[in-house]
Fold:
Amino acid sequence: EDKVVQSPLSLVVHEGDTVTLNCSYEVTNFRSLLWYKQEKKAPTFLFMLTSSGIEKKSGRLSSILDKKELFSILNITATQTGDSAVYLCAVSLLQGAQKLVFGQGTRLTINP
Amino acid sequence: DVKVTQSSRYLVKRTGEKVFLECVQDMDHENMFWYRQDPGLGLRLIYFSYDVKMKEKGDIPEGYSVSREKKERFSLILESASTNQTSMYLCASRPRFFGRAGGTGELFFGEGSRLTVL
Structure:
């Protein structure tokens, strides 16, 4: 059974802190790993990772994939209250219309 | 701007009622998906479709059916709603080819339909 596990499930930090969110996976026919941010509505796309060791960066957010150890991390530096959201990790498979298998999500709360 | 539209944002239904959730995308995507989202469980795939009139079961299809009569429209049907189907339902779409053919492979999501079954 394909599985994606995120940790922690919930995290509360102060504004300005740096956070690291984890995503491990165990799937057949891996194609890529994606990170999404979900506030009150639809998830919004952050990153797609396909190659090990290559960091993707967007402002204060960055992510990297380790295909040998089967995990990815999402880093957020100098956090702001607007970063409060649920962060979703998903793995795209090669079969089944390249369906995405999602983790449980990490609920991140940034306190001022 | 890409758009996935779900017809109802909030619904309240009674046990045993038939429920239709409609999803329309304007991006000419081949692949469409229905997920449900529950606290602590993340997004779980109910059904997906890779072409008109084609459908495949996802991980939790029991109690649901789908219809894809036109490329842009993917409907989720609850034949007889039950309280354990109270959830947030998310529709998504994606082109068949991406990566080298273009695109990031991301799913484009609708705003979600929050269904409460009493």
